[in-house]
Amino acid sequence: MSAKKDVSIDTAEKVQLLETLTTRFRDHPHRHPRLKWTKIESALTANPAKLTSLWEMERTGGQPDVVGFERSSGLFLFMDCSLESPVGRRSLCYDETALRSRKEHPPQGSAVGMAQAMGIALLTEEQYRHLQSLGAVDRKTSSWLQTPTDVRDLGGALFGDFRYGRTFTYHNGADSYYGVRGFRGVLTVG
């Protein structure tokens, strides 16, 4: 899965998604202090492709929510806020190169490929730490993170989790995959 899907959601799915996002926004005000849902909803309804990406985030278990606003760009930042790595995005190697190199027992896909198909990106280390500051996630799971080219060129990839009261970033072979490792996505909307 590497190309972005040409998918849109129907009216009933759009209404359901907006209701879910509205409730989540209201229930977790610490994630987005001083932001108003009406402005976010307007930005979402003006961009159906972003709604489709959020639908995919929700459908795969990510529980996306607004976690910030970039003043310089005027973009709202959505991240997967599920307590554990999204269940519908686990058992994936890091990227398509790792997937092609896996000769025996290959996974169903790659985190980077699936993210691209959904129209989102993997979290960076900085974004992952920001998400962890809003409430500990990945206490039992782990999530692939965007990996710098110099690490990826050596065959590795980064992932993070929360253990012993702190956030950790580790490395693993990019072709590895585990039932408890998935990925968290980020989407900008404006």
Q: Please, could you describe this protein's structure?
A:
By secondary structure, the chain is α+β, with helices and mostly antiparallel strands. The protein has one domain. About 35% of the residues lie in helices and about 25% in strands. The protein is built from 7 helices and 8 strands. The strands form 2 sheets. It has a 4-stranded antiparallel sheet. A hairpin with a 2-residue loop joins strand 5 and strand 6. It is globular, with a radius of gyration of 16 Å. It starts with 10 loop residues before the first helix and ends with a strand.
What would a concise description of this structure say?
With 190 residues, this protein is an alpha+beta fold. The chain has helices at 11-27, 37-45, 48-59, 96-101, 111-118, 125-133, 149-152, and strands at 64-70, 75-80, 121-122, 142-145, 156-163, 166-173, 181-183, 185-189. The longest helix has 17 residues, at 11-27.
Features:
single chain; 190 residues; alpha+beta; four-stranded mixed β-sheet; 7 helices
